[in-house]
Amino acid sequence: MNFWNDPLKVAAEWLTGVFTGWGMNTVAANVLVAFLGVLMLITILMVIDIFLVWIERKVVARFQDRIGPNRLGPFGLIQPFADIIKLMIKEDTTPAGADKVVYNIAPMLSMMSVLILWAVVPLAPVMLGVDLNAGVLFIIAAGSIGTLSIIMAGWSSNNKFSVIGAFRQVAVMVSFEIPMLAVLLIPTIFSGSMGMNAIIQSQDIWFIFLSPLAALIFLIAAIAELGRAPFDLAEGESELVSGYNIEYSGMKFGMFYAGELLHAFTFGGFWAIMFFGGYRFFGLEKVSPFLAIAIILFKALLGYWVIMWVKYTVMRIRIDQMLAFNWKFLTPVAFVLVMVTALMNALLRGADSWLYITGMILSNVIVAWVSLEFVRSAAKTEREKVEGPKQVVEAHH
Amino acid sequence: MEKEFNYMTGTQIIFLIVGAVTLIAALMVVTVRNLVHAALWLVATLFGVAIVYTLLNAGFLAVVQVVVYIGAIAILFIFAVMLTRRQAADTGAALNSNWWAGALMAVLTFAGLAYLLQTWSGFSKQSAAIPSGFDAIGQLGTALTSPQGYVLPFEVASVLLLAALVGAVYLAFNKK
Amino acid sequence: MNEWLYVGLFFIVGLIIPVGAIGVGWLLGPKKPNPIKQSTYECGIEPVGEGWVQFKAQYYIFALVFLVFDVETVFLFPWAVRLGQLGMFAVVEGIIFILILVAGLVYTWRKGMLEWA
Predict the structure, then answer these.
(1) Which one of A94, A178, A256, A317 makes the best mutation probe of the C interface by having the most chain C beta carbons within 10 Å?
(2) What does the alpha-carbon distance between residue A135 and residue A194 come to, in Å, rounded to a whole number?
(3) A175 is in which domain, residue-wise?
């Protein structure tokens, strides 16, 4: 067993040896080593998180035709550290009438709900994290804790804006959880497992080629779950100022902010795992586990970039539009897609792989086209209701 | 053998702590004055139950517990509390004159259940180890869909959910 | 059990990190509260009334609909896991299951409960 082939295992065995050498009992040593491993992973994540601040600011600057942070260090790379120092030395204010205990727990829960997601992320073939057999549902369960933290933050701040923001955010999150759950059924159907690693292992053909519509719905639902534009009506700067985290300052606000960025990055990672083969890339992942980690981080960054792209391109929508979009369009489409996929999967099971792929893609295209036709006709009726029947434009003026 | 023994007591210690915290949280739900706090203590109780499920090797059930009870039902409770009351705290007396009857019933029910469990032969038995590679969720899927299994309850569950939805909509619609 | 021990560790470390970060912020930051600073923020003007507003009952309706669909989809996961091995019978069964629930969605829609009015 070589360090470069399975670094975690070698390091863990070495450390366990050291601890048992100190006269520690085997079980305690194992738990301690696992604890240190988790601590290391989460520390690395927090360091990545710091650079995500820089990436986010640089990318938004480019989208808005600016340069972004460029004064501190090369390419402004020291800027995020300055941001953190500033967050740390700011006064931590608590509004009068706030529910102190709930107010303080909320930002911690918010950050935790993001960090625990990484428990199920397989980083490399030899570093599976915790390969839970209910891995897919674990994402949703962690999201539930995030939802809870937002409603706690909004309610405990004793501020009108924060309560309104929290209500909106929770409405968005719970609504879009349904299409997300529904499309998560699709990788589950393809791979026959809810475990993250099994889903990656069965992607000899990336699932995006089998079900592009599911990948799209997952992305939309993920953006809504993150509360990013166009679904950032909970923050709504122009009307709610900042939404549920309005009364938070200093590091507590920092937890919400860093949590949101890491959450976006994490969902980029899940998008890659579900539909883009996770750490797999034409067998490169077998060369070295470090290469596999680089691949999945790169794919997660790409997913994160797409989420930013959407955020800085699309306008915010109203809550009634958001709910109508989810319940009258996305949810029915997701469920129809699940039914069609299950049916096609059963019909084409014995067929050649090219026939299977073509059938799947065709069924996806048909579902997308039919649902868009429905939207078009509904939009037409709506427009006629508002504007009256379309006037025939006179030819001579 | 030494290692096995240690591991068992470790699980037991975790179970005892989690059980105690869950019970305290459950007590807080019914004694706390602020309704939102009560709802949050309820979340803690439900989360404790989820941890107990993981201790029983029922990981899927634990995750479902968090998704459904914390992610949906607790949120529904908090929404309901925030919608109905301006002052989310009750100022009336926490106990009425029948509190002793309620307490007596609770103690008797607990004693009865404990007695029944004592007489059950499986109570003192160690559970059989789960074979490695056992696909619990797959087994559940087969059981839910095979004609020899629970097809009918599976479909009836969806009708039940439909009935719940229709009932909720009907109630909300009539209030308008 | 063993794998859940690791998940438990993630929960513990996931709490330690933010507690540590907030703790450091609390140590380093100044602590000079005054009534104006602690008043709730309302765009810089004096706060009006209490920090509470009446909500639309609509939020509750959506939460109810969400609850029903949440439970339904959770039921579908074991079905999806075994779909590859099971026959057409199981597929049709799952589709009937979904259709019954979609009927509920259509009913809710027709009754106008999905309108934000």
Answers:
(1) A178
(2) 6
(3) 95-374
Domain contains A394: no
Residue type, B121: S
Distance of CA A259 to the CA centre of its chain: 11
* Same domain as A118, residue A195: yes
**A140 → closest Cβ in B10, B67, B136:** B67
Q: Which member of C7, C18, C29 has the closest CB to residue A111?
A: C18
Predicted confidence (pLDDT) per residue in A34-77, tens digit: 888 888 888 888 888 888 888 888 888 888 888 888 888 788 88
Domains of chain C: 2-110 (1.20.58.1610)
Q: Are residues A153 and A53 in the same domain?
A: no
The subunits that touch chain A, with at least 3 C-beta pairs less than 8 Å apart, are B, C
Q: Which of A150-154, B6-10, B40-44, B123-127 has the lowest mean pLDDT?
A: B6-10
- Tell whether A16 and A130 lie within a shared domain: no
The model scores a pTM over 0.80:
yes
* Alpha carbon A225 to its chain's center: 7
CA distance linking residue A175 with residue A147, whole number of Å:
11
**Residues B67, A151: C-beta atoms closer than 8 Å:** no
Who contacts A19 (Cβ-Cβ below 8 Å, separation ≥6)? A28, A29, A32, A33
Domain B1-89 has CATH 1.20.120.1200: yes
A102/B75 Cβ within 8 A? no
Flag the least confident range among A46-50, B43-47, B77-81. B77-81
